[in-house]
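Lab meeting tomorrow. Please check the following:
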Amino acid sequence: MNTSNVTYYKPKDIAELLGVSVKTLQRWDREGILKANRSSTDRRYYTYYQYLQFKDIQK
């Protein structure tokens, strides 16, 4: 996968796109429903590709 054009999103931004809370995203990460990526400082982040995959699963 070419990562040069990948857009990274903070949990708050993905939560707004999905219509859920950040706490829900954190729970989904723990439960393996929508796993977050982790930065070198251990902060969660998501990609637009993850968002698209998740939305496709929900259909």
Notes: Residues 48-58 form the longest helix (11 residues). The beta strands are 8-9, 37-38, 44-47. The CA atoms of residues 28 and 34 lie 5 Å apart.
